């Protein structure tokens, strides 16, 4: 057989997954994560310890660096750079919004970064990409908890107490998690095909914090305020602020539409990631 003829041979795997449903894909990925739950815990601990190994302060940086961006906005609010918003002290308004911003963008970035950095490793081990991504999400969760601890300090210092409806915040945020995780999974696959996806996403998110109402409310800023009706970051952050500090679900129609979109995007992205996993892992 000549090299030219060999190149024309296409091997079809019996478990190529092309005909699998979204429910099967989701069940399979959840099963992978559950089977490798102890490995996920080990990977997170190793990454946590190794992140700043060799530095004088070691793991202290894991606690300090996540809150640095929040302290910047807290400091600026103390200088009266920002006014109070909707009756909420500016420091509380900003630190809470920025915490959600980093949480949401982390859900988008993590699948891209994990797949990009562990592609070669995944080819040599049985550790599935889904479990690797979840270990990355564990780091996001840790950083978010550290930032929330600072938000609590800010809330106490400014007496901008949340309403009792804040207890529903995890439920309110559930569609946001589905949407941004789904978008991250989709972009992680696209980034394997087009390596420009990752830097483009980073650029968009760098500017996104300023046009999504995270720093300043943009209700009356012409085109931007109109576009933010379709901006999931703006919708979910605004709704979260209104539930926590005003006790109402602001913009219910926009929230409902975004939640339906989130469910659709998540289902489609999970199925695509499941189908494309072999190619993402380097198999042909």
Strand content: under 5%
What's the order of the H and E elements?
HHHHHHHHHHHH
In terms of structural class, how would the helical and strand content be classed? Answer: mainly alpha
Overall mean pLDDT stands at 83
Number of helices: 12
The oligomerization state is single chain
| Major sheet details | none
Written account of the structure:
The chain has one domain (19-280). The chain contains twelve helices and no strands. The chain has helices spanning 3-7, 22-35, 37-50, 60-64, 68-78, 90-124, 129-158, 169-193, 197-211, 222-227, 232-246, 252-280. The longest helix has 35 residues, at 90-124. The protein is globular, with a radius of gyration of 21 Å.
Brief account:
With 284 residues, this protein is mainly alpha-helical.
Keywords for this entry:
single chain, 284 residues, mainly alpha, 12 helices, 0% strand, globular
Could you give the topology of this structure?
Blueprint: H1 3-7, H2 22-35, H3 37-50, H4 60-64, H5 68-78, H6 90-124, H7 129-158, H8 169-193, H9 197-211, H10 222-227, H11 232-246, H12 252-280
Helix pairs in contact: 2-12, 3-7, 5-6, 6-7, 6-8, 6-9, 6-11, 8-11, 8-12, 11-12
């Amino acid at each position: 057989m000549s090299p030219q003829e060999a190149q024309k041979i296409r091997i079809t795997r019996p478990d190529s997954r092309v005909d699998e449903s979204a429910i099967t894909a989701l069940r399979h990925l959840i099963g992978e994560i559950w089977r490798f739950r102890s490995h996920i815990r080990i990977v997170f601990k190793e990454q946590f310890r190794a992140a700043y190994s060799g530095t004088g302060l070691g793991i202290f940086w894991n606690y300090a660096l996540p809150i640095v961006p929040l302290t910047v906005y807290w400091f600026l609010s103390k200088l009266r750079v920002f006014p109070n918003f909707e009756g909420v002290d500016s420091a509380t308004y900003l630190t809470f919004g920025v915490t959600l911003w980093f949480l949401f963008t982390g859900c988008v970035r993590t699948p891209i970064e994990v797949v990009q950095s562990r592609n070669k490793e995944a080819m040599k081990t049985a550790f599935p990409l889904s479990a690797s991504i979840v270990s990355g999400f564990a780091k996001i969760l840790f950083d978010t908890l550290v930032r929330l601890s600072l938000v609590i300090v800010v809330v106490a210092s400014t007496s901008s107490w949340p309403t009792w409806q804040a207890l529903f915040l995890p439920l309110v945020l559930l569609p946001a998690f589905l949407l941004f995780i789904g978008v991250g999974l989709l972009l992680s696959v696209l980034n394997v095909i087009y390596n420009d996806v990752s830097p483009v996403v980073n650029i968009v998110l760098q500017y996104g914090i300023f046009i999504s109402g995270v720093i300043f409310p943009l209700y009356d800023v012409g085109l931007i305020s109109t576009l933010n009706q379709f901006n999931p970051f703006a919708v979910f952050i605004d709704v979260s602020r209104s539930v926590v500090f005003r006790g109402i679900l602001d913009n219910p129609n926009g929230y409902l539409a975004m939640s339906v979109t989130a469910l659709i995007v998540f289902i489609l992205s999970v199925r695509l990631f499941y189908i494309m996993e072999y190619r993402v892992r380097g198999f042909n």
